[in-house]
Amino acid sequence: MTRRARRNSPHTHSNPRTDRAVTSSAEQAARALLPGCNSTLVACLILIAVTVVAYLPSFRGGFLFDDAAEITQNDTITSLRPLSRFFDNNTRPLASLSFALNYALGGLDPLGYHLVNLIIHLLAGLMLFAILLRLVPMLHRDQPPISPPQRAADSAISLVVAMIWLVHPLQTQAVTYIVQRSESLAALFCLISFYAFLRACTARDPTVRAPTSRFTWAFVTTAACALGMATKQTALVMPVILFLFD
Asked: Is the pTM of this model over 0.85?
């Protein structure tokens, strides 16, 4: 009777096999939120595919409004020499240089300009995804080691947020309006700067393996920030953001 009472008691120890089965089921459920979320490559391919489908119709568009002053009627972009010409009385030299590279490769065919704008936007979205993969787990830093289900859920959240950012209507002007490349290119450099800053912070954490030195990531942070400032003045706020985050 005593043995039967102990078996039926709610305070008895749980069965290890049952616990493992429950954990496995929870892990499968978390992975079911996003098929292949444990694969960064698959996630990146999903982001690329969704973004290309969303912006593919814009490739039929031509030059509009300020595109004339900055591209079609701008003699500065018709030649890449000397490079100093892009820095003379120009507050956005890297944006002008990118238009000059477009002109050198395809003249005034708007398709090439739209393609470069989309590539820049895609790179920015992938960089945001990489940042989120490091930021979201930080929310559990004070908890025990992250379990596989939690890691899968974090990856799913990062992917969904990056996807929303890539295809959100507010991004349309920066991608389809060719001259607004300065906005998306500056955003790309800012995101690279922020990612490198996160890696620099990780490099000084003794519990995390960081094959690249903190000095290297600090250099990338500074260089990307400077390139963003040379693309558009909005990147001037990046040092303040990094300071507040730190």
From this structure: no
